Amino acid sequence: MDPKLVGAEESSDRNESSGHIYHLALDIGGSLAKLVYFTKDNDHCVNLALGLSHKENLAICNGCRSYPVLKGRLNFMKFETSKINECLDFIQSKKLHPGGTQHQVVSASHETNIKATGGGAYKYADLFKERLGISLDKEDEMDCLVAGANFLLKVVHREAYTYIDGQKEFVQIDHNDLYPYLLVNIGSGVSMIKVEGDGKFQRVSGTSVGGGTFWGLGRLLTKCTSFDQLLELSHRGNNRVIDMLVGDIYGGLDYSKIGLKSTAIASSFGKTISNNKELEEYQPEDIARSLLRMISNNIGQIAYLNALRYGLKRIFFGGFFIRGHAYTMDTISVAVNFWSKGEAKATVFAA
Ligand SMILES: Nc1ncnc2c1ncn2[C@@H]1O[C@H](COP(=O)(O)OP(=O)(O)OP(=O)(O)O)[C@@H](O)[C@H]1O
Ligand SMILES: CC(C)(CO)[C@@H](O)C(=O)NCCC(=O)O
Prior knowledge:
One of its GO terms (molecular function) is pantothenate kinase activity. The protein is built from eleven helices and 14 strands. By secondary structure, it is an alpha/beta fold.
């Protein structure tokens, strides 16, 4: 999950020593630990209404009197949870934690508390305490997720978009017509949440076949050494080499009577049992493509079925698995579109 805030900038290794660090918060999930902190400086601003944080927007922010404007920027970092010590090293090296000399505005009463969510807030509580003297102030991940999603959808302009046939189209959110919606958070596992208002939600479903499955199975099957490498491979692959299509079963024909085109996947990975190839002949890029397709399709289908079950017209997808990756979004959209017979549109917002 992703306690995302406005004005995001993925932090490079820039030196923060000239800036004043105000806030640090963490989300430690099963795969990734995400960290956000705000640094104060006069060259940037975060406009809480527009969600801007870039230098170029300073003029606009200066001209915008009716909304709170903070001079500075939000910095985002991510670490593999399996390398949590790198996250602690980063906090220590940047002196982001209370007690670090750059930390200027922490009041005495909150000196050792840092907001943290995700399972890692529990799992690594002792580690943070022992290494950095930080007490993790735990927030429930579903509460954070829903609060973050509602905030982003209401406040950040051009946050949500559909992705259909390679076309990204921003969705105008009517604040008075946002609820109810289905929030599908694709992290290591997948949570599906019916959201009916601020703080009003129910986790209605989930699946353990999620981002962790893609990365985990992908590693085992392709020997990739990074998630990005696996994604990059999937760009170049052809899933038809691995997946058994309806046409493979029906001699190239559609199965029109039940509405299945010859190009529809009849069985993910199924082709590998029906031809006489040696295992070594299967290319990693084709495997990566099939895997991404299988998992995205499955999530899209379960999401649609839950939307149907609870009468929800709109589905918002988030989580780090998506990360703006075109093929993932396209597959999810196609799955939702396919199962809803064109009635529901998958609305995807960037993780
Ligand atoms: N650089 C990366 N390294 C590892 N996984 C990545 C990376 N980028 C994207 N991912 C994908 O994002 C998933 C993690 O997403 P996210 O951070 O939203 O979930 P999480 O908080 O770790 O998990 P959960 O909420 O289930 O505990 C990974 O399982 C993987 O599929
Ligand atoms: C366990 C959590 C909530 C941790 O973020 C997530 O990984 C998840 O929703 N997993 C899917 C579990 C299931 O519903 O089958």
